[in-house]
Design goal:
Two copies of one chain form a homodimer. Chain A contains 13 helices and two strands. Chain A has 331 residues and is mainly alpha-helical. The first copy, chain A, has two domains: 39-170, Cytochrome c-like domain (Cytochrome Bc1 Complex, Chain D, domain 2, Orthogonal Bundle), CATH 1.10.760; 178-305, Orthogonal Bundle (Cytochrome Bc1 Complex, Chain D, domain 2). A two-stranded antiparallel ribbon of chain A has the order 1-2.
Chain lengths: 331, 331
């Protein structure tokens, strides 16, 4: 009875406060559920995200390469674009992308809204134009009404399109991972092996770049600090945006949230497995050769970062009308 | 009061019986909700239906060409296959396909199970093989467990894969259209214009082929009876299955359920609009030139055939493992 008496409500409260202090000291914070969102934009943006009519072919939607059944990625080294063009870079996950400091591997879009317009008009991706996309939407009465309802304007424009898609993407956060349970004080939410992996992750220096609620996404770092990274991929990273030579091969540090779902890894997609990715990161970025046991521990930790995947009904797209321009996949 | 007295419960019952008799006399029956289904197979089949890893590229799933956000079709003249190959024929809707007498435009698959294996192994579609598909699934523990749970066998085989997909497809019926409400006695469920269209549809002879609960799907008919159909498409129809010269250009009569969503029309996808399709059908199959008013009436009727679209959560696919063979989209 005396032993149990320790677990009084007051003692429990003290324990929780202690856990809170511990939490505050961790360099990783839990993913928060979305706190403020415009549901009208979200529902409209969800339809647009799944609508292949935003592509020239009528075949490729945002969800083609950022597939929400597959961790918000296509699980390919580099993506497939219009007419099966091979994309230049690995599709980053859309999950938790609202938490990124900027969008794309080279950060060339300041936010999700700026990003959303890119692939639509990229000749190697959806190969459409903003004008054609808006013209198409204007021929579909259900879209016209929904845009009016949500934005209150007479005409649809590309700003509204990307704004709605970005608002939907804001909802694609993945709270509730086992690691977040641990961060919030549920000490048995992860195993000793996984906790060991987290400690190693911190001690080895991975945490220097992969920190914050996304374990990444907040800075640009050179790929290949200690040793140069060997790749046939021609992407140059941040230099494309800043023009500064010092930014060559600097890429946005990818989030490690849901990393067990977002294979293959790196901007070139050349690391097929987590184990391989951890090994390369250790050697090239930190000058560390992890032992097989250390590697396995870190991988075990990384697998605790899979959160609740966004769950929603497959959206139904409003049908085209006789006036809607036809897709031209083979022109 | 006397007038209202007519609508007593007994009188209403008599009216409903009368409606029942009328219903029995119509050559179209309402779509029934699914009556018997194996939910384990359905949930497994739903994942497989959305899983692009059943294709060589890792990019094309059943849902790519039979998109359940878009009436179970791709809304393209002919489909896009592996490496952007142009398909030979229009993708028929998967909606209500369980009610078809056979599958594919030429009926070469006896049922949905036989159909499901086709595209996976077709070099112009998903370009995989049944063996590679099964080998891939065997490397994913969550699939292995789910197949065991559902089928109770030690190993996955292609029969289980197609069986599960077919069971999911059995759920893709679309009851509850406005026309079905009318068939079931809700007399104001369709307008006078729409009812006029239905009467014209029957009187003109459309109903000879487009009858039953699917308004089609139950017979093979020659495309171009009164006048030959002109097309650049090389599909020959039923002759490919029977070898009989009389079956040249005979195609399965498509369902008209959800036809407002399943544009473009005909086996070659050459009719972009319902109005155009009705005009051609009238002239080539029935020797009738519908007036613009008649055409509009029939089109109005056809638009009452859109039923409840299947509503379900976007499925989450179990992740690949280090052992899972990698997709090879560009080989």
């Amino acid at each position: 009875m005396k032993k149990n008496a320790f677990f009084t409500p007051i003692a429990t409260a003290i324990l929780l406060v202690a856990a809170g202090v511990a939490l505050a000291q961790e360099p990783v914070e839990p993913i928060s559920p979305v706190k403020e969102v415009n549901l009208g934009k979200v529902e409209l943006g969800k339809k647009l995200y799944f609508d292949p009519r935003l592509s020239k072919s009528g075949f490729i939607s945002c969800n083609s390469c950022h597939n929400l059944s597959m961790g918000g990625t296509d699980n390919l080294k580099t993506s497939i674009g219009h007419k099966w063009q091979q994309g230049p870079i690995n599709s980053p996950t859309v999950l938790n992308s609202s938490l990124n400091v900027a969008q794309f591997w080279d950060g060339r879009a300041a936010d999700l809204k700026a990003q959303a317009g890119g692939p639509i008009a990229n000749p190697g991706e959806m190969a459409f134009t903003h004008t054609l996309a808006v013209d198409m939407l204007e021929t579909i009465p259900e879209y016209v009404i929904e845009f009016k309802l949500v934005f209150g304007k007479a005409l649809i424009d590309i700003d509204q399109v990307t704004d709605a898609i970005a608002e939907f993407e804001k909802t694609l956060v993945t709270p509730n991972s086992r690691f977040d349970h641990w961060l919030l004080g549920e000490t048995d939410a992860i195993t000793a092996e996984e906790l060991g992996g987290y400690q190693l992750f911190k001690l080895s220096g991975c945490i220097a770049c992969h920190n914050g609620s996304s374990l990444g996404g907040t800075s640009f770092q050179k790929m290949g600090i200690v040793e140069p990274y060997q790749t046939a991929n021609t992407a140059q990273g941040l230099i494309a945006v800043t023009g500064k030579d010092a930014d060559r091969f600097k890429f946005k540090v990818p989030t490690l949230r849901n990393v067990a779902l977002t294979y293959p890894y790196f901007h070139d997609g050349e690391a097929a497995t987590l184990s391989h990715a951890v090994d390369i990161m250790g050697r090239l970025q930190l000058g560390k050769q992890f032992t097989p046991q250390e590697n396995a521990q870190i991988v075990a930790f990384l697998k605790t970062l899979t959160g609740d995947q966004p769950l929603f009904d497959l959206p139904m797209l409003p049908p085209s009308t006789d006036k809607t321009p036809k897709p031209t996949p083979f022109d």
